[in-house]
Design brief:
The chain is about 50% helix and about 15% strand. It is of the alpha+beta class. The protein has one domain. It is extended. It starts with a strand and ends in a 6-residue tail after the last helix.
């Protein structure tokens, strides 16, 4: 059995890569933040608002699993 995660958006479907670990993810995030600071970038599509939205999706998924129903966001 094989699992993969996909997201659908206006530009079509995107498959999320598997693998990696928390240290690699943190390293990439810190490098991106440092690059943005160096370049004077103050807005990023992966900022705190993206984190808020990701948490909302995770909470909805948990509610859907717990209650056996679709949860609209």
């Amino acid at each position: 059995m094989r699992w993969e995660t996909q997201f659908a958006g206006p530009d079509g479907w995107v498959t999320v890569p598997t693998g990696g670990d928390a240290v690699d993810a943190f390293r990439v995030a810190v490098a991106r933040l440092a690059r943005n600071v160096a370049d004077g970038i103050t807005r990023d599509p992966l900022d705190v608002r993206a984190g808020r939205d990701a948490v909302a999706v995770l909470a909805a998924a948990q509610t859907a699993a717990d209650q056996g129903r679709t949860v609209r966001l």
